[in-house]
Specification:
Radius of gyration of chain B: 13 Å
Number of strands of chain A: 11
Shape of chain A: globular
Shape of chain B: globular
Number of strands of chain B: 12
Distance between the termini of chain B: 41 Å
Oligomer: heterodimer
Structural class of chain B: mainly beta
Radius of gyration of chain A: 13 Å
Helix content of chain A: under 10%
Number of helices of chain A: 0
Order of helices and strands of chain B: EEEEEEEEEEEE
Chain lengths: 115, 112
């Protein structure tokens, strides 16, 4: 069983469209994250949720809206997609919200291509 | 804000040889953790090794070991007996009071 699974693995879409990426973890973790990896492979945190509550929201455009229906799921909805949104988006989870020392379990990533 | 710097965008090593990847970081915190993650072409992020800042002993995981120099804020990764499967992007990461902060990565090639 995959610990952190995200769908779809690949997403190709046109500028201006709205799309969602889903993430689920079966590890019983309380905290989930979204990271963005740009074309130069740089990884940066976007959001963090603890038990369905938003605890970290880095400087991300309002077009990005995370939603956590329960602590095992964290979805990412993106409105009005732009060319610059093209990247690989990683979902991750950890046992608790304390970032210190926590091992993050990553999903396999969703490669988003905006044409 | 914490920063993590990996000064080697690319490295290569002959199979069975040893290679060291460099990482430096900047922080005012005294209690933190450092990590090395591996990202093969499959894209999966794999934890290689973790070091607690308050432990002086360098962490080791099989062929992977670190050289942690707290005063110099340096955290290098040594891979011994390199294998073809070690070819990947390697990311150094810092975890303190903020979420995991990554360096820009080093692409490691292994030459048969």
């Amino acid at each position: 069983d995959t610990a952190v699974s995200q769908t779809p693995k690949y997403l190709v879409t046109q500028m201006g469209n709205d799309k969602s990426i889903k993430c689920e973890q079966n590890l019983g973790h309380d905290t989930m994250y979204w990271y963005k990896q740009d074309s130069k492979k740089f990884l940066k945190i976007m959001f963090s949720y603890n038990n369905k509550e938003l605890i970290i929201n880095e400087t991300v455009p309002n077009r990005f809206s995370p939603k956590s229906p329960d602590k095992a799921h964290l979805n990412l909805h993106i409105n009005s997609l732009e060319l610059g949104d093209s990247a690989v988006y990683f979902c991750a989870s950890s046992q608790s919200p304390g970032p210190r020392g926590e091992k993050l379990f990553f999903g396999s990533g969703t490669q988003l291509s905006v044409l | 804000a914490q920063t993590v710097t990996q000064s080697q965008p690319e490295m290569s090593v002959q199979e069975a040889e040893t290679v060291t990847l460099s990482c430096t970081y900047d922080t005012s915190e005294s209690d933190y953790y450092l990590f090395w993650y591996k990202q093969p072409p499959s894209r999966q992020m794999i934890l290689v090794i973790r070091q607690e800042a308050y432990k002086q002993q360098n962490a080791t995981e099989n062929r992977f070991s670190v050289n942690f120099q707290k005063a110099a804020k340096s955290f290098s990764l040594k891979i011994s007996d390199s294998q073809l499967g070690d070819a990947a992007m390697y990311f150094c990461a810092f975890s303190g009071n903020t979420p995991l902060v990554f360096g820009k990565g080093t692409r490691l090639s292994v030459i048969a």
